[in-house]
Request: fold
Amino acid sequence: MSHEVDIVRAVADLRNRVRYWRDQGLGVALVPTMGALHQGHMSLISHALEVADRVVASIFVNPIQFGPGEDFARYPRQEAEDAAQLSKAGCHLLFAPQVAEMYPDGFSTQVRVTGLSEGLCGAARPGHFDGVSTVVSKLLLQVQPSVALFGEKDYQQLAVIRRMVRDLDIPVSVRGVEIVREEDGLALSSRNAYLTAEQRAIAPALYRVLCATAEALAAGGAASDLCPAAAQSLVAAGFDSVDYLELREADTLAPVESVVRPSRLLVAARLGTTRLIDNVALTP
Ligand code: PAF
Reply:
């Protein structure tokens, strides 16, 4: 039988628990999440268990990374099920603070990574990455882990966090972990739960189109031809609209026309009110 994961809600308790481990010379990893855990999150936990002696997961639906009219209120919250999954996986501690613990009255600080936070998801979700950078810098300072793990599905988020950690000299190693997919290719996401059966049947086109476009780019095609055509195929497949489908340089996210350096083909598209994102890696 697995040991039940301990849950702490106060930063002071979190710090005490982590300090005790650190004093024993144990390495600590952090897996920040917003809960509604799926196999993608559990893959972050298992990678964390491989690289550290103790693993802290956080669950916090961070209000400041949601824009007005976005899904903050309806974002799935299922702490008991999440805690059971974390226990089974062997996670050592769950930090699940209330909003007032993270943002007490008078909270006035924002962390903003310029450049990387603009464009792609930043264009459709103004302020989103400021909310992410702010909460992730707080979590990193609260836990002070040696390693922090993030999924590659949110690729722009990962790039923003890497840059923030570098720019602010935060002493942590940031690891990106590969996307986990359903059998039909759909990247796992807590937001897949919003899809109707009909939308769910359309959704795998996202990855199919990315893969076909990646192949055409690898064969020497130009992004400026292939990406708009790929966006049109998504609409033809049943997506309501495409926010972006673009080839970017892997680290800087600068737009590129062909794959001469490690690159990413990134997409965000909408099925009804649900916005799905995905990406694939391309190497020269
Ligand atoms: O990827 C997420 O779930 C969130 O953006 C994160 C990194 C936990 C910050 O709230």
About this structure: The first strand starts at residue 6 and ends at 8.
